[in-house]
Structure formats: structure tokens, C-alpha cells
Write a structure and sequence with these properties.
Layout: H1 3-19, E1 21-27, H2 35-48, E2 51-55, H3 62-70, E3 75-78, H4 84-97, H5 100-103, E4 107-112, H6 115-119, H7 121-130, E5 135-139, H8 140-146, H9 157-172, E6 176-180, H10 188-197, E7 201-203, E8 207-210, H11 219-246, H12 249-263
Parallel strand pairs: 1-2, 2-3, 3-4, 4-5, 5-6, 6-7
Antiparallel strand pairs: 1-8, 7-8
Helix pairs in contact: 1-2, 1-11, 3-4, 4-7, 9-10
């Protein structure tokens, strides 16, 4: 491990012990994580004794599901679910990758993150219950986008009201409910408001928290630490690809000189 990775590992261990970190996250969807990056994240999660969540690229993203199985993800999230049929397609795909026994150890979630998905929430929830999925993640940023609103609007009451509608539905059906999208230290009052209705966990791009963290004064600091982890992650990623891009520069220059010399 390099210096940045050691710092990330220390941060994750402290996050688990102090700030309620439960998982690290990777996305094949909007993040577009590459295999070599994923393997580094898996090692960090393993050493920090944290679970791994993977958000796949779609309800039928078979290759993503196979990779999630390969690296031992404990939780898989299917994005942009807008109908009960999309839930069925996700279940069919997961059943092709995981055996019934393996499924019993998995947490399968779907993402509601558009107004269309919100309007179909009851039909979607019925299908989730029927096929024993774990629950729903509400994605605030894309939800705002589907309403023509911006990322800055994620904490507005009209968004929180709709989140609570889905939360109440999950509670009634004994499903888990999580919130993501634009989660930072400024989101804590809104998250506490949601948790007063029903909430199991909340998530940033790279880190997931147990809802119990919201009950004490370290909640905001925990989200700052999650942002610091992502910052370190991106710095390490940039350094890694800079090294790759630079490793053949000397040979490139030598070949260019050779061609110019022979062509002269």
C-alpha cells in the first residue's frame, strides 16, 4: 500500500469505530469504476472490516453483477428503477448470477431516483416484497434532476416530503430504507427529519453510515470524514493513472527519434 492508501485505511478503521461507517461503495453506473480501482477498494474494505456495496449499471447489467460476485459485494443496488417490470428484470438477472443459497446472504436494493419511479412506488414496493429484496435507496440528486431542479435543491422540503412517502411505504412493508445523493455535513438536519419517520442508513458516493450515527454530535464530522476519504481516493486514482500514462514516455521518445532518423 502507498501512503495515500494507508491513510485511507486508517480513516476507514476510525470511521467504523467512531462515526458509524458500515460499508464502502463503488458504482459501475455514474462513477464508472474500473476493475483495477475496484480491486484496490475491495482490499481497503477487507482490511477495514467493512462491507462492500456495488451499484450496478442497470437492472440487467449482467457483467456488473458477475464482477460484484467476483469481489464479494454484500449489497447490490440497481439504479433508475421506474416500474415493477424493471424490478422483475433485476431479479431475473440476479438469479442468473447468484444461486438461491447465495441470494440468502445478499442484500439486493433498488434505487428510486426519478419522479417516474416515485409515482410507481407502490407497484415497485409490492414487487420487491414478493421477491424478497432488501429495500429501497432514494437518490436525491437524480430525483431533483427529473423535476428540473438542481443538486442544490436536495434538502428542500418538497423533496424531503417525497422521500418520507417512500420511507413510510418501506416501513409498512418491513423493508430497509436508505437515502443518498448529495449527502454531506449540511444534510444532517434533513436526514434527522427523515429518520424521525423511517431510515436505516444513508450514503455518500463512497461511504455508508448506520442511521444511529445521526443521534449524536459526531454526525456532521462523520460526513466530513467521508468526504475526506473520497478526496484521498480521487488523489490516489489520479496518481495511479499518471504513473501509467508516464511509464512509456521514454520509449515513445526513442521510437519517435528512430523514425525521424530513418526517414531523413
Amino acid at each position: 500500500m502507498n501512503i495515500l492508501e494507508k491513510e485511507m485505511l486508517s480513516l476507514l478503521k476510525n470511521g467504523k469505530n467512531t462515526f458509524g461507517f458500515t460499508h464502502v461503495r463503488a458504482e459501475f453506473e455514474s462513477e464508472g469504476i474500473r476493475d483495477d480501482e475496484l480491486f484496490r477498494l475491495v482490499e481497503l474494505a477487507f482490511r477495514a472490516d467493512l462491507n462492500l456495496i456495488i451499484k450496478v449499471g442497470g437492472c440487467e447489467a449482467m457483467t456488473d453483477l458477475l464482477k460484484a460476485k467476483q469481489v464479494g459485494a454484500s449489497t447490490i443496488i440497481a439504479p433508475m428503477i421506474e416500474s415493477s417490470y424493471a424490478v422483475c428484470k433485476f431479479i431475473q438477472s440476479a438469479d442468473r448470477v447468484y444461486s438461491e443459497q447465495e441470494r440468502s446472504d445478499m442484500e439486493l436494493f433498488i434505487n428510486i431516483e426519478t419522479i417516474q419511479g416515485y409515482e410507481q412506488r407502490e407497484a415497485i414496493t409490492e414487487k420487491i416484497v414478493k421477491h424478497n429484496l432488501k429495500g429501497i435507496v432514494f437518490g436525491r440528486v437524480d430525483f431533483c434532476g427529473s423535476l428540473g431542479m438542481s443538486r442544490r435543491d436536495v434538502n428542500k422540503p418538497e423533496i424531503t416530503r417525497r422521500i418520507k412517502d417512500v420511507a413510510s411505504l418501506c416501513q409498512a412493508k418491513n423493508l430497509q430504507f436508505a437515502v443518498g445523493g448529495g449527502i454531506d455535513a449540511e444534510s444532517v438536519p434533513t436526514l434527522r427529519d427523515i429518520s424521525a419517520s423511517y431510515l436505516n442508513r444513508y450514503e455518500t458516493r463512497k461511504v455508508v453510515f448506520d442511521v444511529s450515527t445521526l443521534s449524536h454530535s459526531l454526525a456532521q464530522q462523520g460526513l466530513i470524514e467521508a468526504s475526506r476519504f473520497e478526496l484521498l481516493w480521487l488523489r490516489n486514482k489520479c496518481n495511479y493513472y499518471k504513473m501509467i500514462s508516464a511509464e512509456d514516455q521514454n520509449r515513445l521518445k526513442m521510437l519517435e527519434r528512430r523514425i525521424i532518423s530513418l526517414a531523413a
